[in-house]
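[step 3/7] fold_predict: job queued, chain A
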Amino acid sequence: MPSSEIRILPAGFQGVVGCGFRASGYNATVSANIELSDLLQRLHAEAAADRSGHVATYIPELAKADSEAFGVAYCTADGRVGVVGDAEIPFTIQSVSKPFLYGLALDAHGRDAVARRVGVEPTGDAFNAIITLEQQTKRPHNPMVNAGAIAVASMVPGAAPADRLNHLLEGLGRYAGRRLHVDTAIYLSERATGHRNRAMAHLMLNFGMLEGAVEDVLDLYFQQCSVVVTARDLAVMAACLANGGIHPLTGERALDQGHVRDVLSVMFSCGMYDASGRWMHEVGLPAKSGVGGGILAVVPGRMGLAAFSPRLDDHGHSVRGMAVIRAISGALGLHVFGG
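[step 4/7] structure written:
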């Protein structure tokens, strides 16, 4: 799709509750979509001019990404989707998977059991910092950093590795509304270079924070990060969280409503790693990024926003993706404390 082209993808739903525009009825729905899509198109064009940042190279396969690819998408809580630019180009989900796997663990084991394995405190450290365990409990600080996500991966149910992978893919697929798959080349590249993650896993094994064989857990984690999505998928997945855990298009429940609060809270305080405080202050939306270039944000009760651009800043966040979501939040007054 040319980067200047906008497509609105209606789902047969009426009303504009998800957008937050003051309007009603079919004509108002169309008007609200046009306003939001016009804004998205303008902000996409502005952010595309920013050529700063660089693609991730520490995973060799990620270094092959097209640095100029850039797409933006939204999905409202009542089921309307809009895309601009390269929003349907596939890429690997990477760390954007972490809040959704945290939700799967909460649904499978409950809050107390998960809390014994991983905390909810921000660290102020980089996502791949090795020393990320709490001094007293020896838990990883939160499920958004690599150590915490590995601990969560060890909690995915299943009698065998194939069962656990299938459970993971089914869970992510409920959010996306379609069957997802693993990019084998990315997975093998991550597996071959994931020595820091192995160090974290063995440290956690030493303190009893992992369940199962370390290499099996790491394999699942590397596969989790290598699941293929699009920016449109991420917007829909974010909209599930905005909609109380229910997929806005299929009506299927992706996450227990009682656990949505837990996931959004940790995303809000920890989702942008050592830039989380600034993001909360300036943008004010629960968000999660990944080194594949994806980023999503949740506007509770209204919509999910997502972007894809592989140019990353020094924290591992998409430069253009952050810019466009920051601008959308400011233009529409979406900061959760904005009144």
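[step 5/7] annotate
The beta strands are 6-9, 71-76, 81-85, 91-92, 228-229, 287-289, 294-299, 303-308.
The chain has twelve helices and eight strands.
exit 0
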